[in-house]
User: Which sequence fits this backbone?
């Protein structure tokens, strides 16, 4: 049996969550359930945990535990989903923003450039646009913009032009045809790195990941009790910047508001002065953890 996903920074993240036995917690990215199981191990019978995931595949990982409540939903709807379940305040929110190993290993989902599969990349396969819709439907300027912003690629206008030439001849509908389309502008010595960034950019766009993260962070502020903890593991510089700024200032620009007397007014107290990163042993054991950055804050 293959492992659905190896949890990243497991002890560090759950430790920063400061789990109280009788508390109520939210795991915004249930996935394989690694973080959730660790949290459950620290809860008493009076505690509860709500695990969110929009991918129906994750239902197979749900623990048989009355304290755990599975919510098949995008975490952008956290506050509403909790209210429907009679929960208005929680003691902690945890999010691991990484894509589960399952998604990369299941080539049929289209997240990986290895193999050949439909160019899909949707976390929620019940609807919405696919990566093929983006690749074939966005104009060159829009394509170049998302490749630069979400993939942090260089000369993205050249990449967009390669895609445009290929799609004019035939629609790009598979992962292999996308790899072939960008072959003329793929660096020979950094092919894997280049394709990883390309596929990452499309995945972020398809799933609206940045907007969903903003919504979840704003809602976390509203559902956390005073003293409650927000713990986030990110893997992309844009994600990390949003998380860092929000924990520092309560907004995404990092703008510190001041009161009438000029005193800084922020909704959080930052717990991690610097991002916590995996040690060499964890990276060796799980190479996909190498870009992880963990930050935590306490609601004032």
Assistant:
């Amino acid at each position: 049996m293959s492992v659905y996903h190896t949890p990243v920074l497991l002890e560090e993240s759950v430790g920063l969550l400061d789990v109280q036995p009788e508390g109520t917690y939210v795991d915004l990215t249930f996935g394989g359930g690694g973080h959730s199981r660790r949290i459950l191990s620290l809860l008493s019978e009076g505690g509860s945990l709500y695990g969110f995931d929009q991918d129906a595949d994750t239902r197979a990982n749900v623990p048989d535990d009355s304290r755990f409540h599975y919510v098949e939903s995008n975490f952008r709807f956290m506050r509403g989903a909790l209210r429907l379940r009679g929960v208005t305040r929680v003691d902690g929110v945890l999010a691991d923003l990484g894509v589960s190993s399952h998604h990369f290993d299941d080539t049929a989902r289209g997240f990986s450039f290895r193999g050949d599969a439909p160019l899909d990349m949707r976390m929620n396969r019940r609807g919405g646009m696919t990566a093929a819709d983006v690749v074939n439907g966005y104009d060159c300027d829009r394509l170049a913009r998302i490749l630069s912003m979400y993939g942090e690629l260089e000369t993205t206008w050249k990449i967009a032009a390669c895609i445009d030439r290929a799609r004019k001849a035939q629609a790009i509908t598979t992962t292999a045809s996308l790899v072939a389309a960008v072959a003329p502008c793929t660096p020979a010595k950094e092919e894997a790195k280049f394709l990883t960034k390309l596929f990452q950019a499309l995945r972020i766009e398809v799933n609206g990941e940045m907007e969903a993260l903003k919504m979840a962070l704003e809602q976390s502020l509203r559902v956390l009790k005073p003293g409650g903890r927000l713990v986030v593991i990110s893997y992309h510089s844009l994600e990390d910047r949003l998380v860092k700024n929000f924990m520092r200032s309560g907004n995404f620009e990092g703008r510190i508001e001041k009161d009438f007397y000029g005193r800084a007014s922020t909704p959080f107290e930052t717990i991690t002065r610097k991002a916590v990163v995996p040690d060499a042993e964890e990276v060796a054991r799980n190479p996909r953890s190498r870009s992880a950055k963990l930050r935590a804050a306490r609601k004032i």
Notes: The two ends are 44 Å apart (CA to CA). Residues 49 and 68 are 5 Å apart (CA to CA). The chain has a mean pLDDT of 94.
